[in-house]
DNA sequence: TTTTACATCACCAATTTTGGTGATATACTT
DNA sequence: AAGTATATCACCAAAATTGGTGATGTAAAA
């Protein structure tokens, strides 16, 4: 009897987990060695169970899929990762591929394609569902995405400090408020704000907020 | 042999459908008589197969769960509906209950609770997952909900002119710009802005933009 | 008819933002 | 060692925003 492929599932929707468990149980090649409802401690759990393949959602509480992927590459794990997400945003796809994911499926995909994906990545190949392939094609061809790419570049050039200040601006805080919160001079805050406006090519704080909301740089709640 | 409970599944995520199929297949009491990946023609398909229970997501292409529920009550169907959604927004829960749904589960729920829910609604009872029960409790105690209601009131009190100006503010236009666009004095524009800020209880234009985006008062594109 | 709501405008003072330039220190690359 | 990126701060002037009060005309509602 040959070794089964060890699989770990991570998704905050337990119905989906339970469904996948039922699906994977039908095939003797696969063995689900664990599952997680959030990203907290996920990397360790995967390592513990020595899973070959991790099937993971992006949106998870505590720690999202992006952060988990980052941790994986930092710690140099060899476990293959398949992203199973509702979203097919080209930016997101590009990001997870860059971070070393071996496959990407949307939740619109059929259950069977998951089995194919697992086989493929286990054998060291990559696997993308057809709609994701289309999106990837878009990234490399379409001029349509110019704007988005420009924005992406801009986002990439935002420093962590600037992002922090952007967050406070999006909470209706004034320059002075932010200065007090961070124990820096309001002048410094305004410098950061100006640099942000220049980088993001907007004309005012309103523009900053719009950019942040459009590109999900901040979370609107609280 | 007694009659099986006939079930129809509707969700735009096929992996979830496939998962649920696998789960439901384990129990001989249930029979899945059909499934749909969108809301188009869903009502007719459910009627055709004479399903007892419909398990449905809210977010679906073509026609969402709310519209489907509306159609159900218009046509007077007796098929029980269980909503299976990612969201637990009190407003949404209230809405679907009003529209006659018999159950509401979040996708965070365990797969087994779906079986319980099906049994319950088939017997004419209602079924809500525990986190949904909490939300319903919130609606009646109105702790959480107060904010939302306040916001709704505020929205209702915005005049059309104010809304128009809010739109321009959300396009990064200055008071003077807006005045020129509308052929009114910048002073008037600022008065409108001030009234808006007072009504919406925000401290700055940034607050206005946040309010507008949160409540979909404007469209972010262009 | 009186009241209320709406849109309009003005004036004012205090504060904030915007848009520059320039400087310093630290850390990291090449 | 020189260059680059980042975070820090200062100073300045112009422009915009904010927070008031008060006033007018119009239209709709009580």
Oligomer: homodimer
Count of the separate structural domains of chain A: 2
Order of helices and strands of chain A: EHEHEHEHEHEHHHHHH
CATH fold-level topology of the largest domain in chain A: Rossmann fold
The helix/strand class of chain A is alpha/beta
Q: What's the pLDDT, averaged over the residues of chain A? A: 83
In terms of DSSP E residues, the strand content of chain A is: 5-15%
CATH superfamily of the largest domain in chain A: Response regulator
Largest interface (CB < 8 Å): A-B, 40 and 40 residues
CATH class value of the largest domain in chain A: Alpha Beta
Treating each run of at least 4 consecutive H or I residues as one helix, how many helices of chain A? 11
The number of E-state strands of chain A comes to 6
Please bin the fraction of helical residues of chain A: 40-55%
CATH architecture of the largest domain in chain A: 3-Layer(aba) Sandwich
**Biggest pleated sheet of chain A:** 6 strands, parallel
Strand order of the largest sheet of chain A: 2-1-3-4-5-6
């Amino acid at each position: 009897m040959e070794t089964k492929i060890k699989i770990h599932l991570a998704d905050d929707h337990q119905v989906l987990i339970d469904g996948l468990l039922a699906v994977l149980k039908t095939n003797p090649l696969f063995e689900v060695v664990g599952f997680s409802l959030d990203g907290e401690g996920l990397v360790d759990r995967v390592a513990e169970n020595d899973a070959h393949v991790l099937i993971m959602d992006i949106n998870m509480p505590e720690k999202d899929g992006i952060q988990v992927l980052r941790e994986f590459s930092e710690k140099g794990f060899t476990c293959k990762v398949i992203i199973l997400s509702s979203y097919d945003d080209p930016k997101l796809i590009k990001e997870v591929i860059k971070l070393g994911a071996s496959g990407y499926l949307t939740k619109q995909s059929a259950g069977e394609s998951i089995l194919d994906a697992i086989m493929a990545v286990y054998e060291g190949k990559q696997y993308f569902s057809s709609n994701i392939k289309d999106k990837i094609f878009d990234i490399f061809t379409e001029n349509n995405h110019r704007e988005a790419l420009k924005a992406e570049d801009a986002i990439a050039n935002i420093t962590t400090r600037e992002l922090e200040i952007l967050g406070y601006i999006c909470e209706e805080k004034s320059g002075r408020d932010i200065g007090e919160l961070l124990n820096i001079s309001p002048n410094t805050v305004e410098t950061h704000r100006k640099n942000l406006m220049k980088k993001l090519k907007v004309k005012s704080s309103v523009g900053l907020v719009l950019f942040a909301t459009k590109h999900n740089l901040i979370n609107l709640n609280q």
